[in-house]
Amino acid sequence: MAANPPLIIVGGGLAGCLAALCLAQRRPDIPLLLLESGTSFGGNHTWSFFDSDVPPAARDLIAALNPVRWPRHRVRFPGRERELAMAYNSVDSSALNALVKAQLPEGSWRLNAAVHALEPDAVVLLGGERIAALGVIDARGPDGPMPGLELGWQKFVGIEFAAAAPEPDCPMVMDATVPQIDGYRFVYVLPFTAERVLVEDTYYSDDPALDVAVVADRVRELARERGLIGPELRQETGVLPILIGGDPAQFWPDNDPIARLGLRGGFFHATTGYSFNLALRLAVSLAERNEAFDGKALAAWTRGQFVRHWQDMRFFRVLNRMLFGAAEADQRYRIFEHFYRLAPGLIARFYAGTPKGTDRMRILSGRPPVPIGAAIKALLRR
Questions:
Q1: For the domain 7-71+89-147+247-312, what is the CATH code?
Q2: pLDDT digits 0-9 by tens, 188-198
Q3: In what order do the strands lie in the sheet with 7-10?
């Protein structure tokens, strides 16, 4: 008798790997196949998150990734410097790659598996092999523009140095005292160990273009200025979407027969561009479903999750319109400087994408850090 076809997850990045790990742990009755076109899972990335970003049901999974955890972190702006007693965590893609290979059953993952076409019940690889599926989930990153979405961009280059960290127990997650270039610019310094530090130069820009060589040289100069002298261990880059507005039905038509996760499905925090929290929540929710796992059911379920996420992000889109439309590029830092006057609990809920109604009022209270007329125009825009 032929084996039952597997549920196929296409794309072994963050969202695809977390979904596969949750399914393998909670639904071993569902045969699974995780396909990744590259040579390892997770790519070359560092993912950072607050404790409050992790749903209780995913804590065991995150513990298995053995993240670096700091009990506090700092932010710095021209008019405000603050240390917050909020734990901050980071995990890199090598840990995700190792966990996938250790925990997924033999034969349930494939690397170097470039995909030619997706169907609701099959995947065709670039070499012509057709794999029948119970259902198919597209968890690849976007392969070009994200149709229907009005976007700004968070882009960065990070270099990890073998260098002595000045404060191994306290990362600097946002230092905006640097010259403001190409929009809102800040520096990110993560001391993974006492002798290993990631320095990242980040920009909130109107344009997704990233000159990696130029920004990498800025990172090296920033590291020298901070006394972080040592060999370069690795380099990473990123260009993340920041959601300003758009038409969700154009981005994801309701007749699309393929399920989606990750950035392909629009599952990212509208203001930060980060997807760690959402990838975890959706991985847990997927594994806890009692409904069918065929292609049609999965497509309807994931699109429903996207529609709800779009609604949840409405307040963040308003803030982004202020950031990109009401503030001059070299003054955008003032919005974040203004935000960081708020209570740690509110800040945590903001980054988790779960602000209360009173949080929204508090964020918008006080004198706007941008011209009042431009702020009102941004707030009233649909």
A1: 3.50.50.60
A2: 999 999 999 99
A3: 109-110, 32-35, 7-10, 135-138, 259-260
